[in-house]
């Protein structure tokens, strides 16, 4: 009888633990202003490649509820460290500077940086000598913004709180060009507003690895890495990739 009671107690503890695990809620942080990776639809819902990846990872981890929290880009890492959300899936480049503040998962896609400018600007070049007198835009606190500040002398770049605001200034004639992620530019160039613009030159950064950020030392990183490997192995990742791009960005 005593052994049977111990068995029942162990079973109850196991069931309680399982129920607790099943009831887990995780919060993902997203900028929601960087299409096609993250933005809002007409109803105000967060959509995009990053959101789909985050949802797929939560499903693999058997998380009961995965909530989305929107944050301005400039404060998105501080918001993560302030525990406003649990992981950050918002097309964040893995850099040494950011590694001092957060831990990153394995990369979930690879990016390139490339200039765009008006099609009518036939002589547009990407070398420092040509660009030193040009007004080039980029989003603030991004790899593109840092590249322009570090690599190009002359006129400082114009930095924007969102990529969309940079496009507004480009179409208004206040910029000579923009440097940004190739796949974000690719999406915008297909739009009506972007139809008068094109890529200029080759990418200036070829291998920009994008990762999911968690707080330093958080074991969630390993769970996310395991789930990421699983969605790549079972075809889920490819389905999400193909929903947004006619080529692999892995």
Describe this protein's structure.
With 250 residues, this protein is α/β, with parallel strands linked by helices. It is built from ten helices and eleven strands. It has helices at residues 2-22, 49-60, 76-81, 96-99, 128-131, 143-151, 163-171, 182-189, 220-233, 236-244, and strands at 25-30, 39-40, 46-47, 65-70, 87-93, 102-104, 109-118, 136-139, 158-160, 177-181, 197-215. The strands form two sheets. Strands 1, 4, 5, 6, 7, 8, 9, 10 and 11 form a nine-stranded mixed beta sheet that branches. A two-stranded antiparallel ribbon has the order 2-3. The radius of gyration is 22 Å and the shape is globular. The N and C termini lie far apart (58 Å). The model is unreliable at 11-21 (pLDDT under 50).
